[in-house]
Amino acid sequence: MKISLNKIIAIFFCIILSINLTGCISQNALNRELNKVPQNNLAFVQENQAKQKLISNENAAKLRVDYLKKFYLPWTDPFTWHSKSAIKNDLIKIINAFKSNPGWDANQNLHTKFWAENIELNLNLGSFPNKQHKAITVRITALRVLPTDSPSFSDWDTAGKGYPFDNMQTAYLGANIPLYILHTTFDKQWDLVITPYNCYGWIKSLDLATVDNEFIDTWRQHRYITALQDEKPLLDLQQRYRTSTEIGAIFPLIKTTPLFYHVLTAICDTHGKAQAVTTKLSRKTAQIWPLELTQQNIASLANNFLGNPYGWGDLYNYRDCSETMRSLFAPFAIWLPRNSEAQAKTGKFISLKNLDNEQKRNLIIKLGKPFTTLIWMPGHIMLYVGEKNDKIYAFHNPWGIHTVNYLGGKSGRAVIGRTVITPLDIGKNYANTEWVYLDLVEGISILV
Fold first, then answer.
1. How far, in Å, CA of 183 to CA of 240, rounded?
2. 295-328 residues labelled b (16+ CB within 10 A) or e (exposed)
3. Domains and CATH numbers, the chain
4. For an engineered disulfide with 330, which of 85, 217, 248, 399 has Cβ 3.0 to 4.6 Å away?
5. pLDDT tens sequence across 373-403
6. Which residues pair with 225 in a beta bridge?
């Protein structure tokens, strides 16, 4: 690896002084870089295009139909993406992998082999599939790789392998999400569910309720409103708390008053069956779904995410990079799957692999559409918001920037850990950065 003279000098000063200098990126240096970037998506909106519709009314209607079709697949065609046999085979591979390498727990102790073996017994795969039923979430809940609350970290001593990268965490699901139950554990505490987002996993049985055709018919006959803010309470008509909103969630609309939307929210009765109750949601925190697709509307909604903490697999109900994109575009009836690679393949994908950074930059500016183009690198997804002063800017939710120790120590991270707007070459001028985002970009996906 060739290192320029300037980098050698910078490394020398980093070693000698052992303090944060501009030669080596650190937490303080990274924050200074971020403070130079306007953390406001509206600053990147092109004035002459701000309120222009990005698609025709006809295509907007098609998006709406397509979104609802995919959203309700767990109720209409749950095995569109994964067959029963494929899911079972995946579960066998997953539990065998954890039996061979169970990983580390939250207290930095190595899991024992009995930990994984007990999970395997509870999986009860000999009876697979033992519980097939349509269902719906009744509260915000974690979607897990295996039926356990215990985390499994790959390596506490290696950056990117310890906290918060729990290998058991897949996603968080909000309330009112249609599901298909395929299997339940031996202790009846966990259900294996198929979700609307091209993924499946385990959730607590108490966090869902089964639905019948009558419930589904009632649920689907209404228009919808969409939440534009997180963690806003939904109270029923007796002022009892039922659940909270998440940006991108949709709710069947019953009626509109000057101050509130009256919407349906699913609850669980004493028999485990879903009931639809009317709840109220402030009109300041929601709008009729879907929103009109314009640069200004996307940028305005994206601003509601800025500063939100990063959560691997939506850990703690924080979002990761792909969940941020999914939640951002759901209010516009643009359906996105759960993980970043699948999202990159959702729109019109243009490969940038094997190009140098200048070629990538030119193609992104030439072909990319601000606010409707995803920028993808393996393991990470971003939204292209525009170009300023020959730099490409993206809205995204990253964990951080890789750093290297040239004295032979372990690599590390300069942590961002929140939703931000950055240039794709952030960290470029520091001696200890392993790469910048643009180095690893392999493609863009034009969504509309």
1. 32
2. bbbbbebbbbbeebebbbbbbebbbbbbbbbbbb
3. 5-52+337-446 (3.90.1720.10), 70-210 (no CATH), 215-288 (2.30.30.40)
4. 248
5. 999 999 999 999 999 988 999 999 999 988 8
6. 251, 288
- Of the candidates 440, 410, 399, the one whose C-alpha atom is nearest the C-alpha of residue 166 is 399
Q: How far, CA to CA in Å, does 406 sit from each of 12, 174, 411, 434? A: 10, 44, 9, 10
Gap between the Cα atoms of 323 and 319, Å rounded? 6
Report helix, strand and coil shares of the chain as percent, to nearest 5: 30, 25, 40
Determine the residue type at 127.
S
Torsion of CA 403, 341, 154, 140, to 10 degrees: 110
CA distance 96 to 434: 34
Give the number of other CB atoms < 10 A from CB of residue 21.
16
pLDDT digits (tens, 9 = 90+) for 157-206: 888 899 999 999 999 999 999 999 999 999 999 999 999 999 999 999 99
Q: Give the separation between CA 90 and CA 149, rounded to whole angstroms.
A: 20
| CA separation for the pair 331, 302 (Å, rounded) | 11
Q: How far apart are CA 417 and CA 158, in angstroms?
A: 17
Q: How far apart are CA 188 and CA 445, in angstroms?
A: 42
Token pair 């309120």 in the structure block, residue = 51
